[in-house]
Structure formats: C-alpha cells, structure tokens
Amino acid sequence: MCSVCGDSDPRLIGLAYNQAAPLHILLRLLQAGPHDVRHALATRTAMPERLVDEIVHHRDRSVRRALSWNLAVGPQVRSRLATDPDLGVRVNLVEHCNYRSQVSTLEPRTPLTVEAYELLATDPERVVREEVALQRYTPAHVRDLLAADPDPAVRLCLIDAWSQLSTAARAALLSDADPQVRQAATQRQAPAAIIESESDLSPWTSKRVILARPLAERLARDGDAGTRARVATEPSLPADLVAELAIDPDPEVRLAVSRRADLTEQQRAAIDYTDDPGRLFHPLEWVTDACGDPEIMRRCATSAHPALRRSAAYCPHLPADLVRTLANDDDFVVRLFLAENHPDPPGELLLRMVLEFEGYSQAKMLHHPNFPRSGLRHYATSPDPRERALATLDPDIPPQAIETLSRDPDLTVRRSAAADARLPTPRLLEMLSHDDTAEAAACNPALPLQTMEDILRR
C-alpha cells in the first residue's frame, strides 16, 4: 500500500512499496536509502525471499523491528526474528500478535510458527517469556513448558491465561514452590469469594467475587454516580438493587444496568437509557466470553439493545443469518464491528462501511476478498470524491477513465489513479514529476524499469 510519509523523496518511498520493482532496485533502496525508505521496505505486504534475508540481518534494528510488526508477511517470515539479537525486536515480535487489524479469514491463523513460540519460551530475557505466557495464540504445550519456567514472574503471568491452561499446567501452578504463584493459582481455582468490605475489592468488578449484602447496599446507594455505575455491572448484585439502579436519576447508571447479562429483553426495554453510537464503545465482556455459545449469540444479535448487538457483531463466528441481519443494522457501530471482525462479511456491507467510515480498518475492508469491485466504475462521475476514488478498483474500468480521474480536483482521487497500472504511460510520468502525486505514481506497477533506475540515480 502506498502512503505519504517521511521526509525523503516521495518517489523513493513509492518505489519501496512498488510490487513490480525488481529485486536489485529493492536491495539498492535497502542498502543506500534513507531511514523511512528502509522502513517502507520492511512494511511491504509481499517481498522476495532475498529481501527478507537482508532485512532480517540488517544492521539497523529499527528496520528489523518494522518487520516484526508486519503481520501481512505471514508467520514464516516474522518467525525468523525469534533469534534476533535485539531484545526490543523479540518483544515486539511476540507482543504484536493481534490479527484484529488484518483481513479476517475463515481459516485459523497464528502470528508465529510453533517452533518460534517454543524458541521464545526459552528466551534468556524474562520479559520475552512473560509476553509468550500472556499471548492468546501461544500453543498449549508451550504454556505447559512455561509452567516450569525458572522465574516465578513468568509462571505468575500464566494465571491470566488460566482458562487456556492444560490440567497439568494448572496442577503445577497450584503446587508451585513460590507462595505468590501458588496463592494466585489457588484463588483462580477457588469458588467465588464473598467480599465484605470495599477494601477487599480489587479489581472492583470481578466474576470471582460475590458482594456481601451490606457492601452491595452501600455501593449501590453511594452518593457518587460513578460508584453506582460500576456496581451496576457487578454480576452478583442482588436483583432488588439492580431494580433500584434501573431507575437511578443518573443516565450513566441506568445505561450500565441496561447492559447486564441477567436481564430479559422486557426488563431491558423498561429502562430509560441512551446508548450514543458516537461514544467510544468496548464490547461487553460477558458477550465476548460467550462467542462460542450459539444461543447467547442469537439472543444478543437480535436484542433491541445496541450494546448487545455491537458486542455480538464483534464475535467472529456468527451464523450466516445473523450476519445478514447485523449487516443491515441501523446502528453504525454494529455494522463497523461486523465488517472489521467477521471472516465472511457481505460485500455490500464492506462497500457501505468504506464509504461511511474513515479509520485504520478501511484498508482492510478494501482488500478483503469479499469487497465488490465489479461495477465500481459507475462511481467515476460521482459528485462524492470518496466514491470517485473507488472507481479505479473496478477491473473493467477503461484506461481513458483512469486518465480522466488522474486530473480530478480531489488529491485522493488523483493519487488512486496515479497508482493504477492502466494509466497511460505519458500521464504516469507526468504525475511522477508532481510532488503531490509522485509517491503514488512511483508505486505504479507499470512504471518503466528505466524510470525506476532514473529515480535511484537522482
């Protein structure tokens, strides 16, 4: 993907991203290019094996770190950094194992190879082993190895992944030689504790505690609305106090109650709450914890409460009928979460969200295999520049239309045309000479080799 960045000649940045640039061009950029050009090379979506070799062994650790963050190149390439001499590279490699920002797929993927996880689990630096213990993609047998790690701080990290531990790993932690590890494991294994005083609540709301009646009453009737809103989410709060908070004068308290898992749709509908789609929203934990439960997913996806539907849309394995329902939801966040997280979103939804939303995941949607490209050429004459920029994605748009778009008054539209291989060469070279479109033109896979060489010489 082309992007305008850095202080270097934008043509060099564009060459670094150009998927048709031959290997010798890429190697020369890596060897002699400025820092932001080398960084661009390490963030390509695809790269020749020789280029990977050179980046993995590059003297500049920031280039290797950039590769460690590049999930697009796949686990085989990234895993080569598991033996990197720089601690920061190895930590980044494990820490950045979140596929949420990548195109969802129907096939399960892991950010690193099994061999890389095994190697990193024996890393000489404790912080690396701690990260391996904390990551949700770490294989079960690697967690078993970490349960015998010589450092108790690493073993303690495994407690946070308790639900993913094997019976053997749990048994090892329950009998751990370190009293802090043993105590933490015992607390996770034990039934929910009854909390009598506020000082014993840490963290505040926990699925592992039951509020004693006097404490629950005191918190539910506290003069601070924030305190009441927090206790309103506590699963163990008695039903009569939930009903009391459901008519609380503060709207934030009523909203918190309306999101509880134990309410019926009728009880939820009776609460006077407002759930603004414009405010920051995090999926409800009790919903995401139940992503694999078809009954709960159906109840949430068909709820009248937008927070439940948004949270269901965040879950990646909804059945097809619920996907269709949520794709047409009136709530913007529901549609956005579905487009970002479901592996098989409807193409119409992806197109709609690209036109409605500007954010980090927009590129993911544009490159999703379900994104509808045929027919986009009719946007070429749209009054909306965001729509005109999409026209170049149509595989059947004629070169003349691309050239027309290359002269569009909107810069984003011109850049999309500049990067299109169907743009006639004379116009491509003309756009290469303009600073505002130079990078996009240098990205163009139809850029003549001689022109690439000329850019390097300049």
TrEMBL record:
<dbReference type="InterPro" id="IPR016024">
    <property type="entry name" value="ARM-type_fold"/>
</dbReference>
<dbReference type="InterPro" id="IPR011989">
    <property type="entry name" value="ARM-like"/>
</dbReference>
<protein>
    <recommendedName>
        <fullName>LRV domain-containing protein</fullName>
    </recommendedName>
</protein>
